[in-house]
Amino acid sequence: KEKDKKDLEKVTVVLDWTPNTNHTGLYVAKDKGYFKEEGLDVEIIMPGEAGADQLTASGKADFGVSYQESITQARVQGVPLVSVAAVIQHNTSGFASPAEKNITSPKDFAGKTYGGWGSPVEKSVLDSLMKIEKANVADVSIVNMGDADFFTAVKRDIDFAWIYYGWTGVEAELRGEKINMVYLTDYSEKLDYYTPVLATNEKMIKNNPEIVKAFVKAASKGYGYTIENPNEAADILLKAAPDLDEQLVKKSQEWLAPRYQDDASRWGEQKLDVWKNYADWMFENGLLDKKLEAEKAFTNEFLPE
Amino acid sequence: MINNLLKGWRPALVLLLLFIIWEMAVKLADIPAWLLPPPTDILKEAIEGWGNFHEHLQSTIKLSLLGFVIGSSVGLLTAIILHLIPMVRESIYPLLILSQNVPIIVLAPLLVIWFGFGLMPKIIVITLVCFFPITVAALDGFRQTPNELKHYMMMAGANRRQLFWKLELPFSLPAIFSGLKISATYSVMGAVISEWLGAKSGIGVYMTLASSSFRTDRVFVAILFIMILSLLLFLLILLAEHFLVRWKRMEAERK
Amino acid sequence: MINNLLKGWRPALVLLLLFIIWEMAVKLADIPAWLLPPPTDILKEAIEGWGNFHEHLQSTIKLSLLGFVIGSSVGLLTAIILHLIPMVRESIYPLLILSQNVPIIVLAPLLVIWFGFGLMPKIIVITLVCFFPITVAALDGFRQTPNELKHYMMMAGANRRQLFWKLELPFSLPAIFSGLKISATYSVMGAVISEWLGAKSGIGVYMTLASSSFRTDRVFVAILFIMILSLLLFLLILLAEHFLVRWKRMEAERK
Amino acid sequence: MSLLSIENVSKRFGENEVIRGLSLDVKAGEFVSILGPSGSGKSTIFNLIGGLLTPDEGTIRLQKESIIGKRGSISYMPQTPSLLPWRTILHNVLLGQELQGNINREKAIEMIEKAGLKEYIHSYPHELSGGMKQRVAFIRALLSPQPIILLDEPFSALDEWTRLGMQKWLLDIWDSHRPTILFVTHNIEEALFLSDRIFVLSHRPSHVISELKVPFSRPRNEELLLENRFLESKRTIHFALKRSNRE
Amino acid sequence: MSLLSIENVSKRFGENEVIRGLSLDVKAGEFVSILGPSGSGKSTIFNLIGGLLTPDEGTIRLQKESIIGKRGSISYMPQTPSLLPWRTILHNVLLGQELQGNINREKAIEMIEKAGLKEYIHSYPHELSGGMKQRVAFIRALLSPQPIILLDEPFSALDEWTRLGMQKWLLDIWDSHRPTILFVTHNIEEALFLSDRIFVLSHRPSHVISELKVPFSRPRNEELLLENRFLESKRTIHFALKRSNRE
Ligand SMILES: Nc1ncnc2c1ncn2[C@@H]1O[C@H](COP(=O)(O)OP(=O)(O)OP(=O)(O)O)[C@@H](O)[C@H]1O
Ligand SMILES: Nc1ncnc2c1ncn2[C@@H]1O[C@H](COP(=O)(O)OP(=O)(O)OP(=O)(O)O)[C@@H](O)[C@H]1O
Ligand SMILES: [Mg+2]
Ligand SMILES: [Mg+2]
After folding, report:
1. How many CB atoms lie within 10 A of CB A271?
2. Any idea where the ABC transporter domain is (chains D, E) (predicted)?
3. CA D17, CA C253: separation in Å to the nearest integer?
4. Could you read off the pLDDT tens digit of each residue along chain D, which spans 247 residues?
């Protein structure tokens, strides 16, 4: 068995944050031996403050969990990141607010306070959504809430914030706090981008395509298992990260399981339109210096048939 | 003073040398700019991006200065209270040391809950970072007041207040100034950290944005200005010391 | 020493009082536990979660100790080099001070990119946090060696090496130990920060996990242990000092 | 009639009995010395008079009033000059008055000039030599409003040559102002050269073993130190001390 | 035949001419004092002999060999005891030998015991009184292998009573070992009481203004200080110094 291990190709994958249900497929693939079947010995690493993208791009990590938004910005700056699979088919993020604030559609944003992390993207997104309902983003007071989490923030000063329903929204359900969600996908097609995605760097694709293929295949299998058995998959994640809150993981997993593949023909599929649309939108809003060559930013070629 | 500045040519030279080596290394090893930009790129970005950057810089300067003033006042006041009431000193001082081991980033959410997103939590963070060196330095200064001077003052009929204002406080000014020097440089760091608690502008904000949009050169511009700012604040305190504790300097020059 | 520990009852009492007030405040004001858990909850979690937590604790202890040993060695060595070669001191010392103003969190990604995920970048972070207080303290110690002792040694024919090993180094041991005490407590903080650079276990990891799954009580357990650990390391150095610089303590007791 | 009178004072620090049944008195305008070996409790006597310590027994009276535990009723010049390094000479000299509340700037300037320190009036203490600093400390004591000056071995930290100069200077000043002075020293020559009366103390626990009226007329000058009658007086005190040691 | 001879030595620090054409010599087994006012360059002379400074002019010879700029060729006892606080008395005493490379532990223990410090042999310096520390410093100098001991005002920091005790002790030790000693002081009595010959220095720039053979026989005791012939010698030196000041 020792000898087996030596023959395995050592591969590292760096997460975008702390382990959560976005990553379950990777943990399943590791735990169930799918990676090993493909000849890989995978190590999963948390990036801490280091930032997953730089690590993946520089080759310190072979793969990373990233976002379409990041990869778009990165590629424009010459950072050689490529997305190889979409973890979740549609954007599950949206603007959340405590139910008593009565924020149910973008026009309700007016006169309220939004808590963000200080990126110019936020204002543009708010603007796009509000324009649809003929409201003006200038009426929203945007406050940077830094490292504070959603629940903390809405206790003070803040009326609504941008969250992933699959994690923070589920936590709200668990706490019995009623929240309203305004999903991006409900209002704009351009904003239905892939988040998160699995990424690697160009060098990896050029020099070790077989490893990329093997990795994506095993990951696909892992997410497949998760879709079928959310409860068992959640247990595997909890085993790997026992400090996570069990209830939250279970419930979040249940919520997310049908959304990994959703309406796509296979897990991980990415469409050129989605990449193009979003990059165009960013460019139009002055969020990019240059236009993105969307064809080079992602590839479906490593996904199993 | 001017002497000291002139002496600075040697470290400046070393710094220049470091920059040249850095530039060469980046060029020769063909390191991509997003990984480690060469100094010339950083300089270029600092100049080109100035129009956008100076606003951030301004708000950080304001925040650091305000935080420093409040933080060091709190520090000095704490020292005075601890000094004048020995019982408080014995019960609180060890806890103050302990307080320096609470990671500030962990406190952040609590501060936000209690004080919202305004100026208050930021000032608290800077104060937490700033006050301790001054408290320690001032307490040391008070305690090190020579016994002979105290004895003379007491024999000559000084009361507790006169003893403090006419002897202990002026005597510990040099010590307080060394505390101020440390705090001054910390206050810039503290301001940047506190901006991560949510701010609209500031070097901290600029830096997060830069790093999330892969502008490593801008991250370095931010570092550069943090260092320059720290240095300037340090020099400011040095200048104040130069005028306020003349006697100590003159004494030192004599030796 | 034992005296000093016994004196600790007063701060301990204040601490206890603080905890009681905290508990009462939380209970009376009905603050939700995810916002600010009462001390009893934290204690309960510390005990119940121990089986899972002690692994994290162990790896942080190992990392802190290793980092501290390496960091303080680097610090001491730097001080010795700066002391023995005045030209190096003049050119490098100001830069060292400047180096303390680079926010470590900004350096982190660069360190990981340059040195990977191994032990190396973590040790570098702890070293950066640790070395400076020791360098400053040791340099001060070397420089404060009384002139009369130096003069005697030189008149008696001591060469540079003898002067350093027989006079300057032993004389500055107490100063070095005060540097070590500061560095020791910093090293725990440094280790926690360095774990944010990507580690599999450690209090830093535990803390991020806890905070990302909204377990405020666990975050406080982490803070609690960081403080305890810092305190223990501090006491360890105090103990070492107790045995190594007997003479200074005895001298002080005389006064 | 005595200005200061100490009667039957005793003081112990725990086990350590320092003073036992000590009595002495100082008349207005007199220069009185207390001569005693190191550790015999001379500084302790001053601390008792100055109100920093209270005696276990006995009375201490200044102008008939008890000053036990009362600070600030005497003017004091310590062994080290104890000037505040951040004050100019003028402001240092004024300190004694400042603590008592009324400042006389003109008088201070006049005294400093008389002491030959005119050019140093706005200098800081570190710019002065040891002897000059002691002069400033003495002027400070002289300017304080209290009726008696205590001097605690003011010259023992100076080197011999400077010390002699200071002694001569002190005699000069004293001759022209005639303040009441209680002087502490362990140097027989110094006590003889300066004072009207000398109280010789025993070893701990100390009390007065002999009181001596100094037989030399004033003004005195340096040559006195080398005269045979001076050596004679010195011998007397020396043997008195030796005898008390043997007891 | 002289063990140490200094000929025509001059030294200036920038503008400040400290020594001008100074000559003196010390024979083996002799106790020679240099007597001079403060700041006359006495310590500078020692630094020249010890090799810390080099003279601008002149020669310094030890046993016929030039020792200009050569450190470690003399044994030295400074004004302050300069004991290392982290070493026990025994290890402090051994320091002089240690620096030269060969250690004689037995001899050291013997000497410490002779000096009456037997119970302090493993104590640390802070446990000793000022006088005791100076004894240790002297033993350290005595045990160093060099043929001459320089003593730079070793007793001037002690109070008068301890100082007298130390002088008597030094005379005792010297009588039994007869080391060669060059002693610096600004105290006329001390020089007269201790030495065989005295070189009296002028003010800066200093040179020898008079050389004096001390007329008292050995062993000497304390009473000598109170005799008339002692006062006589003191007067001689005093007036010699006074004359040179006036020049
Ligand atoms: N505050 C105090 N507490 C305890 N002991 C004291 C205190 N002040 C003085 N002593 C003791 O009293 C004794 C006499 O001390 P004091 O300073 O009065 O002597 P002194 O005659 O002035 O000596 P010196 O000539 O050295 O100045 C000493 O043994 C000293 O230890
Ligand atoms: N290294 C030096 N650099 C410049 N000047 C010096 C140096 N050493 C001594 N001097 C000057 O030389 C003069 C004589 O000093 P020195 O210490 O030799 O006198 P001294 O006779 O030993 O005095 P004291 O009795 O006070 O010890 C002084 O004016 C001093 O300022
Ligand atoms: Mg005294
Ligand atoms: Mg000298």
Report:
1. 14
2. 4-228
3. 22
4. 789 999 999 999 988 899 999 999 999 999 999 998 878 889 999 999 999 999 999 999 999 999 998 988 999 999 888 999 999 999 999 998 999 888 899 999 999 998 889 999 999 998 888 888 988 999 999 899 899 999 998 887 777 777 888 899 899 889 888 999 999 998 888 999 999 999 999 888 888 998 999 999 888 888 888 888 898 898 888 888 878 766 6
Amino acid at B241: E
Q: Judge contact between C37 and B113, C-beta under 8 A.
A: no
ipTM: 0.79
Does a structural domain hold residue B33?
A: no
In the numeric block, which tokens belong to residue E185? 């002081």
Ligand 2 and E184: CB distance under 6 A = no
Interatomic CA distance for residues C217 and B99, integer angstroms? 19
- List of residues 6+ apart from A210 with CB closer than 8 A: none
Is the distance from CB of B172 to CB of B141 less than 8 angstroms? yes
C42 domain-assigned:
no
Task: Output the residue whose Cα is nearest ligand 2's atom 29.
Answer: E39
Residues with Cβ within 8 Å of E240's Cβ and at least 6 positions away in sequence, in order, are E200, E209, E210
Question: What is the C-alpha separation between E48 and E58, in angstroms, rounded?
Answer: 11
Q: Check residue E223 and give its pLDDT.
A: 85
Write the DSSP symbol of residue E20: E
| Closest residue to atom 1 of ligand 1, CA basis | D13
Residue type, A224: G
The type of residue at A68 is: Q
* C7 in any annotated domain: no
Give domain limits for chain D.
Answer: 1-74+147-233, 84-145
Query: Contact at 8 Å (CB) between E51 and E61?
Result: no
Over residues B239-248, the pLDDT tens digits come to: 998 888 877 7
How far does Cα D105 stand from its chain's mean position?
25
Q: How many domains does chain C have?
A: 1
pLDDT per residue as tens digits for the range D134-183:
889 999 998 998 999 999 988 877 777 778 888 998 998 898 889 999 99
Q: Does D145 touch chain B (CB under 8 A)?
A: no
Ligand 1 binding pocket includes D40 (Cβ within 6 Å): yes
Position B66 in a domain: yes
What is the C-alpha end-to-end distance of chain C, expressed in Å? 16
Overall size of chain B counted in residues: 255
Give residue ranges of A with CB < 8 Å to any C CB: 12, 14, 17-20, 45-51, 54-55, 58, 60-61, 149, 151-152, 155, 171, 175, 241-245, 248-249
Looking at this protein, which amino acid is placed at residue E114? K
Please report, in angstroms and rounded to a whole number, the separation of the first and last CA atoms in chain D: 34
The CATH H-level (homologous superfamily) assignment of domain D1-74+147-233 is P-loop containing nucleotide triphosphate hydrolases (3.40.50.300)
Q: Are C142 and C85 in contact (CB under 8 A)?
A: no
> Which residue in B205, B63, B71 sits closest to B131, CA to CA?
B71
List the structure tokens of D68.
């036990």
At C60-115, the pLDDT tens digits run 999 999 999 999 999 999 999 999 998 888 888 888 877 777 777 667 767 777 78
Residue among E211, E157, E218, E156 nearest E189 (CA): E156
Q: Where are the beta strands (DSSP E) in chain D?
A: 2-13, 16-27, 31-35, 57-62, 65-66, 75-77, 148-152, 180-185, 197-201, 208-213
- Joined together, the tokens standing for residue E141 give 């100098």
* pLDDT higher than threshold 90 for residue A65: yes
The predicted-structure confidence for C196-247, as pLDDT tens digits, reads as follows: 777 778 888 888 888 777 788 888 899 889 888 988 898 899 899 888 887 7
Residue A274 per-residue DSSP state: H
Partner chains of D (3+ C-beta pairs under 8 Å): B, E
The one-letter amino acid at B142: F
Judging by DSSP bridges, how do beta strands A197-201 and D65-66 pair with one another?
A: unpaired
Helices B9-29 + B39-48 axis angle, to 10: 100
